[in-house]
Amino acid sequence: MDDAPETAGSLLADLCSRDTQRVWSAAWGVVRTEDEGVLDALWPQLPRIERRTADLDLGGGLASNNEVLEIALKTLRWRQGGGCRCTLWPQFSRYDPNKLAERGAVQILSTSEPDYEMTYECRCGRCGQTFHVEQREYHLPWWKWVPG
C-alpha cells in the first residue's frame, strides 16, 4: 500500500465500488490522510459509504481487513463530530507512531531500545495530548496507544 495522496473523489469512488481490494485500499487512504479537506469532502457521504460497504468481507489472513474499513468509517464520523483525531489512535492497533511522525501528526518524545517489543512516548502534533505507546509483534506489528 503506497502513501500517495488521493483525492476525495477517487476515495469515494473506491469506497463505494464494492470491489474489496479497492475498498480496502481506499479505507487505508482515509486512515492515512492528513488532508482535512479530503475528510471534509467525504464525511457528508458517510451514509452512502456505510450502505455500500455494510456487508463486505474484505478478507485478511492474520488480521481482518474489515478493521481498516471500520477505523476509516470512525475517522469520517470523527470528522463530522470534531475534536482531535488522536482520540482514534487507541482504537486501532495499526497506527504506527513512526509513520504518524513522518506525516507530522505526532512527535516522538522518546523510545526504548529498538526491538520487536518497544515503547514510545509521543505527543499529538495537533492538541499536545501525550501517549505511551507499546509496540508488539505477533506475525505482524501492532501498537497499543494509552493516553498519558
Largest sheet: 4 strands, antiparallel
Query: Would you report the number of β strands?
Result: 4
Strand percentage: 15-25%
Helix/strand order, N-terminal first: HHHHHHEEEE
Secondary-structure-derived class: alpha+beta
Lateral arrangement of strands in the main beta sheet:
1-2-3-4
Enumerate how many helices there are, as a single number: 6
- The gyration radius over C-alpha positions equals 15 Å
Attribute tags:
148 residues, four-stranded antiparallel beta sheet, 19% strand, 2 domains, alpha+beta
Short description:
This protein has 148 residues and is of the alpha+beta class. It has helices at 8-15, 20-32, 36-42, 46-53, 66-81, 97-102; strands spanning 106-111, 118-124, 130-137, 141-147.
What does this structure look like?
- With 148 residues, the protein is α+β, with helices and mostly antiparallel strands.
- It has 2 domains: 1-82; 84-148, no CATH class.
- The protein contains 6 helices and 4 strands.
- The chain has helices spanning 8-15, 20-32, 36-42, 46-53, 66-81, 97-102; strands at 106-111, 118-124, 130-137, 141-147.
- It is globular.
- The chain starts with 7 loop residues before the first helix and ends with a strand.
